[in-house]
Automatic annotation (TrEMBL):
Catalyzes the oxidation of hydrogen sulfide, with the help of a quinone. Consecutive reaction cycles lead to the accumulation of a polysulfide product on the active site Cys residues; these products are released when they exceed a critical length, typically as cyclooctasulfur. Belongs to the SQRD family. GO terms for biological process: aerobic electron transport chain. Residues 3-303 form the FAD/NAD(P)-binding domain. It comes from Malikia granosa. The keyword Transport does not apply. Its main location: membrane. It is a peripheral membrane protein. Keywords: FAD, Flavoprotein, Membrane, Nucleotide-binding, Oxidoreductase, Quinone. This is Sulfide-quinone reductase. Its EC number is 1.8.5.4.
């Protein structure tokens, strides 16, 4: 009898636990350990920040859901992993042993790389967690009484650009609906070398598409932006040229700023000798397995993926839903294979699919494979993307409530986008 431990109960961890339970014979135990007792659907956070959603719409209490499926649950942060002894330590001091460990701990939000950044004692907001999005909403209500300039974007080293674009368009839409857009200059400030790069080297002609959308929405932009510090109401940016030389200094005044931080791996995972790269992301092989520890697998934002290309200001490659779904499936099949005495052979796909909401319309991007040159470079804009994104949210939350692991991207999104046909 084996004990499979999943650390993290987010977009990767919850489906991993459900899929394991569906396939693994009952004699094997599964336990999920997560830092908090609720699941949050992170992709909805931009909507929470403008109150298009509330916390109760996009979060779920985990314990009863897992209990119903015969999966153990402990709501405690993991503070240490002894990978040689196959044992974890939790914040309350208890130890938990495992035979297989699945790490899906998402990102550590690395605000402290830029002095004055971040929502905890800094001057910029984030929408990376539901708490952060709610904090934005609190300040936004006061801002609406006395509006002014807004800065939205991504810090040096960031890898998750989709939500920054989304949030710029969502905020512009919300302000337009309130008839306040004319009082709010919006500037998009990003470490990407050009608009539409998205950490992917662009997806087809995403540059023209998103520049055009920015122009249509009166959003100005600064790219190759190395944000160096933030003071109350002011963002300091050194803009680099394409060769990486400083080319212009900016001091951008703002009343509200939402800057996505660079990500790192969480401390307990990063501290395991030989498990991670210098930023704390888990080094894995093509079967999602740790290169050093054969009984440790990892999926989602916590895995190490090399940048698609070198950029003047550092950027990373995004890890989005489709990729995470396929990583999780590969892990489950590999653990089951091993327990049945077969070698692990399943692989995740490192393809990028991004649905970005823009308020009342949206943009879809598909990059197969993630690193160019590609077989498929595809982008489209339309109201159907906005609706597809709402469908994705509703279906994912339904799936988490019902406790099944049906792959959404494989079954619905790829078909809806016609990508399976494009791939052939
Ligand atoms: C604002 C935002 C919007 C996004 N929108 C989209 C989108 O629309 N579509 C898309 O495909 N992708 C999107 N992404 C990217 C990606 O899909 C999400 O970041 C997704 O949540 C990543 O899943 P994950 O399982 O890797 O991490 P998470 O979902 O962040 O889960 C991490 C889990 O680990 C737990 N944890 C962390 N540290 C510990 C610890 N020490 N001990 C125990 N538990 C721990 C956390 O509590 C959490 O349960 C978005 C990302 C962001 C930030």
């Amino acid at each position: 009898m084996a004990h499979v431990l999943v650390i993290g109960a987010g977009v990767g961890g919850m489906p991993a636990a459900y899929e394991l339970r569906e396939i693994l014979p009952r004699e094997h135990r599964i336990t999920v350990i997560s830092a908090v007792d609720y699941f949050q659907f992170t992709p909805s956070n931009p909507w929470i920040a403008v109150h298009w959603r509330e916390r109760q719409h996009t979060t779920l209490e985990i314990a009863p859901l897992l209990e119903r499926k015969g999966i153990g649950f402990i709501a405690q942060p993991v503070t240490a992993i002894d990978a040689e002894a196959n044992r974890l330590t939790l914040a309350d001091g208890q130890g938990v042993d495992y035979d297989y460990l699945v790490i899906t701990t998402g990102p550590k939000l690395s605000f402290d790389e830029v002095p004055g950044a971040g929502p905890h004692g800094g001057h910029t907001h984030s929408i990376c967690t539901v708490d952060h999005a709610e904090r934005f909403w609190q300040d936004y209500q006061a801002f609406l009484e006395n509006p002014g300039p807004v800065v939205i974007g991504a810090m040096p080293g960031a890898s998750c650009f989709g939500p920054a674009y989304e949030f710029a368009f969502i905020l512009a839409t919300d302000l337009r609906r309130r008839k306040l857009r004319h009082k709010v200059p919006i500037t998009y400030v990003s470490s990407e070398p050009y608009v539409g790069h998205m950490g992917l080297g662009g997806v087809g002609d995403s540059k023209s598409m998103l520049e055009s959308e920015f122009r249509q929405n009166d959003i100005k932009w600064i790219t190759n932006a190395r944000t160096t510090k933030v003071e109350a109401g002011k963002l300091f940016v050194t803009q680099l040229d394409d060769l990486g030389n400083p080319y212009q200094e900016h001091e951008l005044p703002f009343k509200l700023a939402m800057m996505l931080p660079a990500f790192k791996g969480v401390d307990a995972v990063a501290a395991v000798p030989g498990l991670c790269n210098p930023r704390g992301f888990v080094l894995i092989d093509e079967h999602q397995r740790s290169k050093k520890y054969r009984n440790i697998f990892a999926a989602g934002v916590c895995v190490a993926i090399p940048p698609v290309e070198v950029t003047p200001v550092p950027t990373g490659a995004p890890k989005t839903g489709y990729m995470i779904e396929s990583m999780v499936s590969a892990i489950v099949h590999n653990i089951v294979a091993e327990l049945n005495g077969r070698p692990a052979s399943a692989r995740g796909t490192w393809n990028a699919i991004c649905l970005a909401d823009m308020g009342d319309t949206g943009a879809a991007f598909v990059a197969l494979p993630q690193i160019p040159p590609r077989n498929v470079n595809w982008n489209r804009k339309g109201k159907w993307v906005h609706l597809a994104k709402i469908g994705f949210e509703k279906y994912f939350l339904h799936k988490m409530r019902a406790g099944h692991s049906e792959p959404i991207y494989e079954k619905y999104v790829l078909k809806a986008l016609g990508i399976l046909r494009l791939e052939k």
